[in-house]
Write a structure and sequence with these properties.
The longest helix has 12 residues. The radius of gyration is 14 Å and the shape is globular. The protein has four helices and four strands. By secondary structure, the protein is an alpha+beta fold. It binds copper (II) ion. The site of copper (II) ion has 4 residues, from α1. The site of copper (II) ion (CU) has 4 residues, from α1.
Length: 96
């Protein structure tokens, strides 16, 4: 079982969060999903032999929202600011 954290886009209320939670939760191979509306993140536990990030992202997109791997945003921001990774440890929660 693997866990990934997604940064979500397009949520406007707590109902959206529940919607995404249900959407991701219904993807075959996903065993658990919890969406945090406040920080716009989804934590997904899944079986990598049954599904993958692309499939999960597609499901979110089909539901009318956006999802990107949080790790990607870290890399992007790091490239933009040139800061080494360790300096981001405490920022992540405030930014996202
Ligand atoms: Cu909503």
């Amino acid at each position: 079982m693997e866990t990934l954290t997604l940064k979500l886009q397009g949520m406007s209320c707590a109902g959206c969060a529940r919607n995404i939670e249900r959407t991701i939760g219904s993807v075959p191979g996903v065993s658990d999903c919890s969406v945090n509306f406040g920080i716009e993140q989804a934590t997904v536990s899944y079986n990598p032999r049954q599904t993958n990030l692309k499939t999960i992202q597609k499901a979110v997109t089909a539901a009318g929202y956006g999802a990107s791997l949080l790790e990607d945003e870290f890399c992007l921001l790091r490239r933009k600011t040139g800061l080494p990774r360790r300096n981001f440890g405490n920022y992540s929660i405030k930014f996202w």
